[in-house]
Design a protein that fits this description.
Elements (H helix, E strand, L loop, with lengths): L1 H24 L11 H5 L19 H10 L6 H17 L3 H13 L5 H18 L2 H14 L4 H13 L3 H14 L4 H45 L3 E4 L3 E2 L6 E2 L2 E3 L5 H4 L2 H4 L4 E2 L5 E9 L4 E9 L4 H8 L18 E6 L6 E3 L6 H5 L6 E2 L4 E6 L3 H7 L4 E2 L3
Helix pairs in contact: 4-5, 4-6, 5-6, 6-7, 6-8, 7-8, 8-9, 8-10, 9-10
């Protein structure tokens, strides 16, 4: 027997020597890879820094087993809800609020009989919604939590915070008042109540100021419209092309302006200016000059209705002519101005010595989109003759 024992021991020793010899020359096949051992380490559930979005049992069998234990249908609804709450809390700690919401929602679906646990699930889900900016959903969950557990401090605080974010300061006050009846010494509720009072007063003050500004602006608009109507100046709004569903054809329509459509006639969006009435009751118009020969324009932001066009031309084409007028043809006394009849597309020559108001009062003149515009041509030039050829023109007599 001794010889047998000795023989077995010798075999064992011989095997170990052989194993050690192989160990020195061959790498262990099941070891972590030296180049990406950290990534492989992260596949072990205990050491995972982040849970995968989708758990594949083939890739993560250990994690799948843990998940199966958590969601084991054999457990009571209370146990399942508790497990899902804990799972949601872990996601919440990782700031993965979307996954936390899913876990809390699954916990609520278990319909367990523990009202306090359900209240916590609602409160925690409200917190996750709050951090995602879903204030209405967070407020709804706070209401549900408060119904299940009326003295739940976190639900009361969250409800007040949601109302503050939604600018419902009166509701925030009610949440705080309800909470302070139960928790009169809570500093967070006291601070929230004070902030809600202050911001409510500020909101009411701002609303009053906005209402006064709106009233003042409405009065100014009404006075402006009345002044334009009194002068007999016609306004027109050029609408955007409208596609007909039946035939697919579009057309640019013209809509006559009513008293309530002044906002649509302002040229402020396009030019930065609009017609206004000064303290003396005089209108000032944004006026556009078009030079089709050179594809150029000039813009006067506040053209007084009592000023004539020639005075402005003398300024624009005075000692310093524009760089695009290489031939120095655009001299004040050598220019013709026209406006276009919106209905007939006939050109009407303008008396440049007449005040702007008289021009705008012409029976065929219409102010489009709040800004009078005039075509400027050089009298007798070849381009002028070509441009005016074939056009219907009403010449000055």
């Amino acid at each position: 027997m001794a010889s047998l024992g000795q023989q077995g021991g010798d075999e064992s020793d011989d095997g170990m020597d052989e194993f050690m010899d192989r160990f020195r020359t061959e790498k262990y096949k099941n070891a972590f890879n030296e180049s990406n051992w950290e990534e492989e380490f992260d596949t072990i559930p205990m050491f995972m820094k982040k849970v995968p979005d989708v758990i594949d049992p083939m890739k993560h069998p250990e994690l799948a087993c843990i998940q199966a234990i958590i969601h084991d249908d054999d457990r009571s609804p209370e146990e399942q809800a508790q497990g899902l709450k804990d799972e949601g809390n872990e996601y919440f700690k990782e700031k993965n609020y979307k996954k936390a919401i899913v876990s809390y929602s699954e916990g609520l679906k278990r319909n367990c009989a523990d009202s306090e646990l359900n209240a916590v699930l609602y409160t925690n889900r409200a917190a996750a919604h709050y951090h995602l900016g879903n204030m209405r959903s967070a407020l709804k969950d706070s209401v549900s939590a408060n119904k299940m557990k009326p003295n739940h401090l976190k639900a009361l605080l969250r409800g007040a915070q949601c109302c503050m974010e939604l600018r419902k300061y009166g509701d925030a006050q009610q949440w705080c008042d309800e909470g302070l009846r139960i928790h009169p010494a809570d500093k967070k509720l006291q601070e929230l109540r004070s902030t809600a009072d202050k911001q409510k007063r500020e909101a009411e003050r701002d609303a009053r100021k906005a209402k006064l500004r709106e009233k003042k602006l409405r009065g100014q608009k009404e006075a402006l419209l009345a002044a334009i109507k009194e002068r007999g100046v016609k306004l027109m709004r050029i609408t955007k092309p409208v596609r007909e569903e039946e035939d697919g054809e579009g057309d640019e329509g013209q809509v006559a302006a009513g008293m309530g459509e002044l906002d649509g006639l302002m040229s402020q969006e396009a030019t930065g200016s609009c017609v206004f009435l000064d303290d003396s009751g005089t209108l000032h118009w944004p006026v556009l000059f078009l030079y089709p020969e050179h594809c150029q324009t000039d813009f006067i932001s506040a053209f007084c209705e009592t000023s004539n066009l020639l005075d402005h031309l003398a300024v624009m084409f005075g000692d310093e002519l524009p760089p695009w007028d290489a031939d120095r043809k655009y001299l004040p006394h050598n220019l013709q101005l026209f406006f276009e009849d919106a209905e007939s597309e006939r050109l009407h020559q303008v008396d440049v010595t007449a005040p702007l108001l008289k021009v705008l009062q012409h029976s065929r003149c219409t102010v489009k989109d709040g800004s009078p515009s005039f075509i400027v041509l050089v009298t007798g030039s070849s381009y002028s003759k070509q441009f005016l050829s074939g056009k219907k023109i009403h010449w000055l007599k």
